[in-house]
Write a structure and sequence with these properties.
The complex is a heterodimer of chains A (about 100) and B (about 650). By secondary structure, chain A is mainly alpha-helical. Chain A has 3 helices and no strands. Chain A has helices at about 1-15, 25-50, 60-85. The longest helix of chain A has 30 residues, at about 25-50. Chain A is elongated, with a radius of gyration of 22 Å. Mean pLDDT of chain A is about 80; it is low at about 1-15. Chain B is mainly alpha-helical and about 650 residues long. Chain B has 25 helices and no strands. The longest helix of chain B is centred in the middle third of the chain and has 176 residues, at about 315-490. Residues about 10-20, about 35-95 and about 215-275 of chain B have low confidence and may be disordered. Classes of the chains: A mainly alpha (about 100), B mainly alpha (about 650). The interface between A and B is medium-sized, with 24 and 30 residues. Chain A: It is found in: Mitochondrion inner membrane. Chain A: Component of the MICOS complex, a large protein complex of the mitochondrial inner membrane that plays crucial roles in the maintenance of crista junctions, inner membrane architecture, and formation of contact sites to the outer membrane. Chain A: It is a single-pass membrane protein. Chain A: Component of the mitochondrial contact site and cristae organizing system (MICOS) complex. Chain A: Its main location: mitochondrion.
């Protein structure tokens, strides 16, 4: 009986919105993944450039990595800052 | 060879030129025509260039033929010129004829131009005149703007007019000249003039034939010839001619004169002309008033005069006498006839008068009769009309009277009816009063009985309602308890719609219960609410997260988050009812309160958080609120149920 009820109830509990206590964690996840992806992309572009243009020097690869990582950091920072302020979803914005 | 061809081409010129003249000069002359006279030094370049083939040379020569040949006048010039001028001047010599030619045509041209101009203007003038005769518009234009145009047109118009009306040929022109004015010439013998020519014809009728009064006046004027009409002239003639005729004439005279005198007609004493034999008397008919008779008399008189002049009176005397007597008879006959006709006419007039009188009388009589008739007729009609009018008025009066009578009758009837109706009504009312008074005596007791029965019924019904209410409150309490137990005994949150609906059904339309149920958030009974243990469990998870964000500044970026994350690990945990408003203390107090079961205060504590901590604990707070709402609603319903039961008992 309990199993049946739980089965029937579970879909009701699940919501598209994440729980409020998991908000920060989710943000951290996103930041990390984006950091990895962007820094990887920058690194690969740097390597390609170094191979094609700069006679396999090392610094273009580092520069690319730096670009990617910096970009990811910036996005992350932005998302944290925006989330701190109370959300304005569903509120009307009155412009002067 | 070339020269020969050129020569052939220039055959006519060569014939003109003298045989002695050199050939090149001739050939060169043609080029001199084309070119300027100055370039004559080179003798004929054409032959030098093409000496080999003769045909081109011929062709070169042939265009030169196309050049305008000098006219015959100039032909003689080149012949003379070369002789007088040096060879270098030959070029100009060929042109020399041109200045000779120029003046002549110039003069002539001018003259020709003049002539042409005159001819053209004359033609134009004539055309203008003609067209102005045809068209009126052009006539106006022409007469106004062309000098002498008006005169010319007027002349032609006049001619045309004269042609059309030949009878008025001599008349002055119709158009009076503006300057000259109308010229009217009055002939010299205009107006009165003596007429002399009349005396010539004696045969015509006139005063000399018939008028006696004219005799004296005409006598002195009589001149030549024997005048028949005059009285004295024949006598003079007679004296001159012969005396022998006097006796006969005297014998005849008295015969005629007495007739002529009283009638004052024809010259009574017809003077007998000098008649050698027997001059015949002129006829004198007294009563010849008729023009026909007069004519006859005149004719006979003429005859007589003729005979008299012929001296043949003896021959025709008898016949004339007879004729005279016949004529007299005829005259008398005519007179008698006239008299008779006059008499007849008078009689007719009289009879006509009489007839007209009679007719007039008849007419007057008839008119009178007619007038009388009409008068009587009109009188009758007038009488009839009066009769009719009076009749109609009488009828109208009658009708009016009838109507008034009827209205009055009707009114009376109506009054009667009203009276009867009111009487009946009062009768019915009195009857009813009696009956009611009778009835009330008996029905009063029945009413009392029925009211007592009603009261009894009411009492039983009240008791029934009391029992029902009891039952209902019991059910209500049971339902509330069921809901509460359902909420407490659940492992995970599940909806409790069925229980709540059952509760609502039981409560029927209790306003308090329905209001309490309405106060519950629909999400609560649709999704269910956690029980207290679940709430505490979730609070612990939330508290861990909140602790991580406990040290965050106002507007935190990634770095501050990282720092907070790291530092929160090394923070000392507070426990129990800690004092202070920092996150750690608030969390500790809330946990303690929750464990005590004071959900309300715990929620209050958590609600006091700020910034990220509040954001993270938002969901837990909402859940807490829902739970609190449901609990409050259930408490209210339970209290209401209790109150109900108490009320029923009271």
């Amino acid at each position: 009986m309990a199993d049946e009820t739980s089965k029937s109830v579970t879909p009701v509990i699940k919501t598209s919105r994440p729980m409020s206590e998991a908000l920060l964690n989710e943000k951290w996840d996103r930041c990390l993944s984006s950091f990895l992806i962007r820094s990887g992309l920058g690194l690969s572009f740097g390597i390609v450039f170094s191979v094609l243009l700069f006679k396999r020097r090392a610094w273009p690869a580092y520069v690319g990595l730096g670009f990617g990582a910096g970009r990811a950091w910036e996005e992350c920072d932005n998302s944290f800052k925006r989330a701190a302020a109370p959300s304005k979803d569903g509120l009307r914005v009155v412009r002067p | 060879m070339l020269r020969a061809s050129i020569l052939r081409a220039r055959a006519p010129i060569r014939s003109i030129a003298p045989a002695a003249a050199p050939q090149w000069r001739v050939a060169r002359r043609f080029f001199a025509d084309d070119k300027k006279t100055g370039e004559t030094a080179i003798p004929n370049p054409a032959p030098s260039t093409t000496p080999s083939n003769p045909t081109p040379s011929a062709s070169v020569g042939s265009p030169s033929t196309n050049l305008p040949k000098p006219p015959p006048v100039s032909r003689s010039a080149p012949v003379e010129q070369p002789e007088t001028t040096p060879p270098t001047g030959t070029g100009s010599a060929s042109v020399a004829p041109d200045p000779v030619q120029a003046p002549k045509p110039k003069k002539r041209r001018f003259r020709r131009f003049l002539i042409q101009l005159m001819i053209l203007s004359a033609l134009g003038y004539v055309g203008g005149v003609y067209y102005s005769l045809v068209s009126d518009n052009f006539h106006d234009f022409f007469t106004e703007y062309v000098p002498f145009g008006e005169d010319a047109v007027a002349y032609f118009e006049e001619r045309e007019l004269r042609k059309r009306l030949p009878g008025r040929a001599g008349l002055p022109r119709l158009h009076s000249h503006p300057e000259g004015g109308s010229k009217v010439t009055i002939p010299s013998n205009h107006g009165l003039s003596s007429r002399v020519a009349e005396e010539a014809d004696l045969a015509s009728k006139g005063p000399h034939v018939s008028a006696v009064a004219d005799n004296k006046a005409a006598a002195p004027h009589s001149n030549d010839g024997p005048k028949v009409g005059s009285n004295k002239t024949p006598q003079e003639v007679k004296k001159e001619s012969s005396d022998t005729t006097e006796a006969s004439s005297h014998s005849l005279l008295p015969k005629v004169t007495p007739q002529a005198e009283p009638k004052k007609e024809v010259a009574a004493p017809v003077p007998e002309p000098a008649k050698p034999v027997a001059p015949i008397d002129h006829l004198a008919v007294g009563s010849a008033t008729e023009p026909v008779v007069q004519d006859v008399v005149k004719i006979i008189n003429d005859l007589i005069t003729v005979i008299n002049t012929d001296q043949a009176g003896s021959k025709y005397g008898s016949a004339l006498e007879k004729a005279k007597s016949d004529l007299g008879k005829v005259v008398s006959d005519i007179n008698t006839l006239k008299a008779s006709t006059q008499k007849d006419a008078e009689e007719k007039v009289k009879s006509a008068h009489a007839e007209f009188d009679q007719a007039a009388k008849e007419l007057v009589r008839r008119l009178e009769v007619q007038m009388q008739d009409q008068e009587t007729h009109w009188k009758e009609e007038y009488e009839n009309e009066r009769e009719r009018l009076s009749q109609t008025y009488r009828e109208k009066l009658q009708a009016e009277l009838d109507a008034a009578q009827r209205v009055y009758d009707q009114k009376l009837k109506n009054e009667l009816l009203e009276q009867s109706i009111s009487l009946q009504r009062s009768f019915a009312a009195s009857v009813r009063e009696r009956v009611e008074a009778e009835r009330e005596g008996r029905l009063g007791r029945l009413n009392e009985l029925s009211s007592s029965v009603h009261e009894l019924e009411k009492l039983t019904a009240e008791w029934n309602s009391v029992v029902d209410a009891n039952l209902r409150t019991q059910h209500l309490v049971v339902a509330v308890e069921a809901v509460k137990s359902a909420l407490e005994n659940q492992v995970i949150p599940k909806p409790f719609i069925t229980e709540l609906s059952a509760l609502k059904e039981i409560a029927a339309d209790d306003p308090v219960v329905s209001a309490a149920i309405a106060s519950i958030n629909p999400a609560a009974y649709q999704r269910g609410i956690p029980n207290s243990a679940q709430l505490i469990d979730r609070f612990r998870r939330v508290a861990a997260e909140v602790r991580k964000a406990a040290l965050l500044p106002e507007d935190a970026g990634v770095a501050s988050h990282l720092a907070s994350l790291a530092m929160s690990k090394v923070l000392f945990k507070k426990s129990g009812l800690a004092i202070g408003q920092d996150v750690e203390a608030v969390l500790a107090r809330a946990e303690v309160l929750l464990e005590e079961g004071d959900l309300d205060n715990a929620a209050r504590e958590v609600n006091g958080l700020q910034g990220w901590a509040k954001v993270l604990s938002k969901d837990w707070l909402a859940e807490c609120r829902r739970v609190l709402e449901v609990r409050q609603a259930l408490d209210v319903i339970a209290t209401e149920a209790r109150l109900q039961s108490l009320l029923v008992e009271g």
